[in-house]
Design goal:
The chain has 3 domains: about 1-25 and about 285-315, no CATH class; about 45-280, Rossmann fold; about 330-430, no CATH class. It has 14 helices and 13 strands. It has helices at about 1-25, 45-55, 65-75, 90-105, 115-125, 245-255, 275-280, 285-290, 295-315, 330-345, 350-365, 375-390, 390-405, 415-430, and strands at about 60-65, 80-85, 85-90, 105-110, 115, 125-130, 145-150, 160-165, 175, 200-205, 215-225, 225-230, 265. The strands form 3 sheets. Strands 1-13-2-4-12-11-10-7-8 form a 9-stranded mixed beta sheet, sandwiched between helices. The chain has a two-stranded parallel sheet with strand order 3-5. Strand 11 and strand 12 form a beta hairpin. Helix 11 (about 350-365) packs parallel to helix 14 (about 415-430). The longest helix has 23 residues, at about 1-25.
């Protein structure tokens, strides 16, 4: 039994150490863009949403509803929609709902690296793979390398400005076919039948003055009373993105375009945060064990074996110890029995003597007056009157009669006098 107990304790100790190492290990930053409202990692949006809730004047909320639901809810009101994701893919019904909302006056900002091909064809834009252009860092000691985003002059009421952006925030770029790049980014037409487009921001050209290699990263399309924005820098709209002054200024310039109505950010088109949590930071001791089927089944067998062992060895192996009732308090019954015995023997003198001994002890304990000394009854009555506040004329007959009864030479008290003497002593005790 002792050997098995030691074995179990050893196994439990090992499991406890493994669990402690799993729980207490430091949390590392995970550079995986989720854009989730619940993700506090660099490329989540928990901090980003919190900042916007205090910054946008008309209000800001995060919901989990698709566009066709928002379209039915917004028939009597207009809300601006914000989508932040790696990519946006819309079905035919959602695409129709999107344009109906735009016709009614809503503004929709799709912050995504790519959009589905049907929406591309509808808008007349085309997605192009692009390498990061390290223009700003050429000939400098900047680490990490940085690129430049250029804000169009006069766009949104802001002057032209260049924003320095680190390379890890840049992704593929978007460009439009058959576009002549003018000096100032005015509204222009490209192909017949396509929407009017306006470029709000673009990525720096690979070569200075080479406007043919310019890549727009923020484009708008007026539709009806509303406007559709496509912004290709979603990583700037994250917790880590708004920490930098340049990033934050660029993001708020874009969001300022939505300030005329309440803004709703929908997470339907983002990556699943639950899937991210399931694969997040999987480097603990238990993670590897559970990832291998043989080790995982061995671990389960150990747990089941320990559970059965505890169940079958936890039983008592000796006869039960009997429960003895605690002794009852018989003090009151004893006192009543003794009193009845003295009363039946017709010895009231003995009852007065027993009461006198208790009376004298209590008076001495509370007042310091020893009623058993050789002082006269007059002196003791005077001292006891000072302590109790009782009249000396009431105490003197009591003490005198008690001296007579205890002296064994005077007349013995009968039952009625015994009761009267006991009651008088109780009155004095209540005054102490």
């Amino acid at each position: 039994m002792k050997n098995s107990t030691a074995y179990v304790l050893f196994i439990v100790l090992l499991l406890g150490i493994a669990l402690w190492s799993q729980v207490s290990r430091p949390r590392r930053f995970v550079w995986m863009p989720t854009y989730s409202h619940y993700d506090t990692q660099p490329f989540g949006c928990a901090v980003f949403d919190s900042v916007l809730s205090f910054s946008l004047p008309q209000g800001y909320e995060v919901i989990n509803k698709p566009l066709f639901v928002l379209g039915r809810e917004d028939t009597a009101r207009v809300r601006n929609i914000l989508v932040v994701s790696n990519g946006v893919e819309l079905g035919m019904n959602e695409r129709d709902t999107l344009f109906r909302m735009l016709e009614r006056g809503a503004k929709v900002m799709l912050v995504a690296t790519w959009i589905d091909s049907d929406l591309e064809d509808t808008l007349g834009v085309h997605f192009a793979m692009q390498e990061f252009s390290d223009v700003v860092s050429e000939g400098t000691e900047l680490l990490p390398p940085c690129d430049t985003l250029c804000w169009a002059g006069g766009a949104g009421g802001y002057p032209e400005r260049r924003f320095t952006v680190r390379s890890d925030f840049m992704d593929d770029g978007v460009y439009m076919m058959d576009v002549c790049m003018p000096d100032g980014w005015e509204e222009y037409w490209t192909k017949p039948g396509h929407f009017t487009r306006r470029v709000w921001a673009w990525q720096h050209a690979w070569m200075p003055g080479d406007t043919s290699r310019v890549r727009p990263v923020a484009v708008s399309f007026p539709v009806g009373k509303g406007e559709l924005f496509w912004v290709q820098t979603p990583r700037l709209f994250t917790n880590y993105g708004i920490l930098d002054d340049d990033h934050r200024a660029y993001v708020f310039r874009l969001l300022n375009l939505l300030k005329d109505a309440p803004v709703v950010r929908t997470e339907v088109y983002g990556d699943s945060y639950e899937e991210f949590i399931a694969t997040y930071d999987s480097h603990g001791p238990f993670d590897y064990v559970l990832s291998q089927p043989p080790l995982r089944w061995a671990f389960y067998v150990v747990l089941v074996t320990l559970a059965f062992f505890f169940c079958f060895t936890a039983r008592r192996r000796q006869r039960p110890v009997p429960l003895l009732p605690s002794p009852a308090n018989k003090s009151l019954e004893f006192v009543k029995l003794i009193g009845t015995l003295y009363f039946q023997r017709e010895t009231p003198t003995e009852l007065v003597r027993k009461k006198w001994l208790y009376f004298a002890d209590e008076v001495q304990r509370h007042t310091g007056i020893d009623l058993r000394d050789q002082a006269t009854a007059q002196e003791r009555a005077s001292r006891l009157s000072e302590k109790t506040g009782m009249a000396q004329e009431d105490l003197l007959p009591l003490l005198t009669r008690l001296d007579e009864v205890l002296g064994e030479s005077a007349r013995r008290p009968d039952n009625e006098e015994m009761k009267r003497l006991v009651d008088r002593m109780n009155d004095v005790l209540r005054r102490l």
